[in-house]
Specification:
single chain; OB fold (Dihydrolipoamide Acetyltransferase, E2P); alpha/beta; 3 domains; Rossmann fold; 6-stranded mixed sheet; 5-stranded parallel sheet; 11 strands; 17% strand; rod-shaped
Length: 328
């Protein structure tokens, strides 16, 4: 699609500049110079863009309009100068190149701003699902890919450019653990892009005046009317205070854990000592911590326990239990 759009832009710029040279500048050498200037500007722009990330079609449209207006303004100024001095051809070329580039830059910037409007995104998606902005933590975590493949996440996922930059910075870290986490995050993004179950777009909106990445995420979610996907507890709270809806992967994981009730029995293996004297700690298959009273002496043993109470915390669920033969 973007290659077809580039071709259309090139054709329109060439034809428009050629017609302008023939009708307003007397044709001749200008019928070659003016279209050549326009095409050279487009080639330089497209080469630079291919090395970066894809742009929204609205940004291309803004760039096209800006380039055409820049060429027209540059040609008008150049025509006046050439009318005064025949040797002004070089200044004419310089003016056209400069105005074409400035027109493209301003036009593509306006196109990005228009493309970021919530109403525009809802129309281009063709569905009622809200956009969802990915946080660095949820990308590195990796569970988002499995959740999307299972069909529990719909709509378009947005990977902000500043999040990609942060991932790249982590992947280039001298710390082996950070480097591994950063590379894992990039692998997860690549997996999401290849998945037929989800659509993921890279959005280049940035907020230069905002330094913190979390604050940028909140500002971006507000601007484009999106939710934030994260497993960062602090970001979750701050975003909710500012009126941004948050989808927390950890909360989802806790919600789908099996429910146990006081009085139910289970078999667990005591793996370590607890914080309090006499306590032992075990873990269920889903990672839920089970604190066993009087379990310290049963370290590395599988025992039957009875649930005595359940504590729900922001970090997850904790189960308190006692050995079955100790429960009267």
């Amino acid at each position: 699609m973007k290659w077809l759009l580039r071709l259309l832009i090139a054709v329109v710029v060439f034809y428009g500049s050629f017609q302008y040279a023939n009708e307003q500048m007397g044709g001749g050498v200008w019928s070659i110079i003016l279209p050549l200037i326009g095409e050279l500007c487009l080639i330089a722009i497209f080469i630079g863009e291919i090395k970066g990330f894809k742009l929204h079609p609205m940004a291309y449209a803004g760039g096209l309009i800006g380039t055409i207006l820049g060429l027209i303004i540059g040609s008008l100024f150049g025509y006046v100068l050439i009318g005064i001095n025949e040797s002004g051809i070089y200044l004419f070329i310089l003016l056209n190149s400069t105005f074409a580039y400035l027109g493209y830059t301003v036009g593509i910037s306006w196109g990005k701003e228009i493309a970021s409007l919530p109403v525009f995104h809802q129309k281009t998606k063709g569905e009622g699902a809200r956009l969802k902005v990915l946080d660095t933590s949820v990308i590195i975590d990796g569970r988002i890919a499995d959740i999307c493949e299972a069909g529990f996440i719909d709509g378009t996922l947005i990977a902000p450019q500043f999040i990609l930059n942060e991932l790249q910075h982590i992947a280039d870290s001298s710390d082996p653990l950070k480097r591994a986490r950063g590379r894992r995050g990039l692998d997860i993004l690549n997996k999401l892009q290849k998945s037929p179950q989800v659509k993921i777009d890279v959005m280049e909106i940035d907020f230069p005046k905002i330094k913190e990445v979390d604050s940028k995420l909140i500002a971006m979610a507000k601007e484009i009317g999106a939710d934030i996907l994260t497993n960062d507890f602090n970001l979750n709270k701050i975003a909710q205070i500012q009126g941004v809806n948050v989808l927390n992967i950890n909360q989802l994981a806790n919600a789908v854990k099996p429910i146990v009730l006081p009085g139910e029995g289970m078999n667990v293996t005591i793996t370590r000592q607890g914080k309090e004297r006499g306590q032992g700690v075990a873990y269920l298959d889903d990672g839920t911590m089970v604190v066993v009273e009087q379990g310290e002496s049963l370290l590395n043993q599988s025992i039957d326990v009875v649930v005595t109470s359940i504590l729900q915390t922001p970090a997850g669920r904790m189960i308190f239990a006692a050995p079955k033969n100790h429960v009267s």
